[in-house]
Amino acid sequence: MTSAITNIIADPNFDPALKAIAQKVLDAKRINEEEALLLFEKGSLPFVGALANYIAHSLHGNKVYYNRNFHIEPTNVCVYTCNFCSYSRQYKHRDDGWELSIEQMLDMVKKYDGQPVTEVHIVGGVHPKMNLEFFCELIAKIKAHRPDLHIKGFTAVELDYMFRKAKLSIEEGLQQLKAAGLQSLPGGGAEIFAPLIRAQICPDKVDGAGWLAIHQAAHELGMPSNATMLYGHIESYRDRIEHMQALRTLQDKTKGFNCFIPLKFRNDNNDMSYLTETTTVEDLRMYAIARIYLDNFKNLKAYWPMLGRQTAQLTLAFGVNDLDGTIDDTTKIYSMAGSEEQTPSMSTEELRALISTVGKTPVERDTVYNEIA
Length: 373
Ligand code: V47
Ligand code: SF4
Fold this sequence. Notes:
Layout (H helix, E strand, L loop, with lengths): L1 H9 L5 H11 L6 H10 L2 H16 L2 E5 L1 E4 L29 H9 L8 E4 L9 H14 L4 E4 L2 H10 L4 H11 L14 H7 L6 H13 L4 E7 L5 H18 L2 E8 L15 H14 L5 E5 H4 L1 H7 L6 E3 L23 H9 L4 E4 L9
Parallel strand pairs: 1-8, 1-9, 2-3, 3-4, 5-6, 6-7, 7-8
Helix pairs in contact: 1-2, 1-4, 3-11, 3-12, 4-12, 5-6, 6-8, 7-8, 7-10, 10-11
The chain binds ligand V47 and iron/sulfur cluster.
């Protein structure tokens, strides 16, 4: 791998600015925003792939992580109206959606009794009547039933609404959820932080600064989180870079992010269906450039229910070291948005095979990236 990069550096005809980036990667130096832009504009797929693969290999050797998890989506009723969302229903149309009771959600947890799942991921629409008290009770009951199950739950968008309704500060709200048993936050709701883009794709929910403030507060309370970016719609390369820059800056401060997950915009059944989806080449370049730019993020995750398992498998040669997860057909967000994965579920054996088929070593992890023997 090093030799592929050294050959590029030795080639007298290769773009000198790209060569300088390759040299920085070999020297384990951070690239800046202008260099990231150059990679988006001029970096060929094999070039960014070689650099990203080199970094992933330096961090993780041949290992690719996966986890055994399932999702609970309490509701798809939502007070917000994000234009890219294929999943939500307005409160007035709630009869077309779903609203689960605490008992129904506990039954979903009980279905996994005796099975070696390590994580439940709880995320859904922002329901006007499901409040902080409701979710604290849910979490406490899940923990009481199964103390070993890691609870990763609630996007900053859900939390922002919950805490404002409860008239609590971010810290107070998070402390209540933590006391009930919440252990980490997923990365959703970040979309693209750039205000002009946000105004067009998700005008009414928490803004970029608010999203970052909630994650910072969680990190400071000892709760790690993930970070996402919704790409491939109306944003520019600069918007993507500024988004990643904000994440890199916060990670320098708190070191609280476990992983970065680029989310490809899917265009079925939503108000942005007129947009063409990105190509696989663009997707792979996105993953590779994220791996190169985000030098303080240890893990780059591909979420296969959204990308489709074949593209997710390809990302493993473009800097990705983490595949989420067994899922067990418990999420609808992406099947409703047109993903090729209409009933996302993989057995541990299938997930391991997906990884080993491309010459990588599958390693099971828990939510905070401890390896599981
Ligand atoms: O915030 C919604 C995205 C996110 C579409 O942290 C869409 O481990 C593409 O964040 N096309 C929620 N994306 C899901 C999420 C997530 C998923 C898996 C793992 C983790 C983690 C987090 O889904 C939303 C939004 O960015 N989304 N609609 C769509 N049409
Ligand atoms: Fe609601 Fe989330 Fe859909 Fe936006 S993306 S409408 S916040 S469920």
